Amino acid sequence: MPGGDISDLDKNRALVAWLRYQLRHAEQRVRDLEHAEQAERRRRQRARAEQLWKIQPRRSAETALLHRGGCGLYTSRAFIDREAAVSALAEPGIAPCDVCAPETGLTGPEPGA
Questions:
Q1: Which of 42, 54, 55, 71 could form a disulfide with 76 if both were Cys (CB 3.0 to 4.6 A apart)?
Q2: φ, ψ dihedrals at 12, nearest 5°
């Protein structure tokens, strides 16, 4: 280190440290963005499920139940649309879920009509 200058080795060590710092921050930003993207995907799926319904088949003496698509009491990937849900509620062997109240929004004119 003639004249008080910083050696090439020290400069490169400092550069490596700075690049590691930048990499850590860039990786954290990627993780944050991935988390936000997953949360948005889940939100869109829940919103879509709330516009659909599902039927829990009857078991032994129980009545079949109509659920909102987002109801957690019954898990299914087989969703039905509004028209099918209205028809299902008219069936004598199908009752609405007491928790998610799927009949809300099914009576009256179709939204957007």
A1: 54
A2: -70, -35
User: How confident is the model over 81-101, as pLDDT tens digits?
Assistant: 999 999 998 888 899 999 988
- Measured from the Cβ of residue 13, the count of other Cβ atoms closer than 10 Å reads 12
pTM over 0.70: no
> Which residue bears the tokens 């889940």?
42
- In 3-state terms, what secondary structure has residue 28? helix
- Are residues 77 and 84 in contact, defined by beta-carbon separation less than 8 angstroms? no
**Entry field: residues in the chain:** 113
- Mean pLDDT for 17-28 is 98
8 A C-beta contact, residue 67 and residue 73: yes
Six-digit token string for 79 = 């969703």
CB 56 within 8 A of CB 65: yes
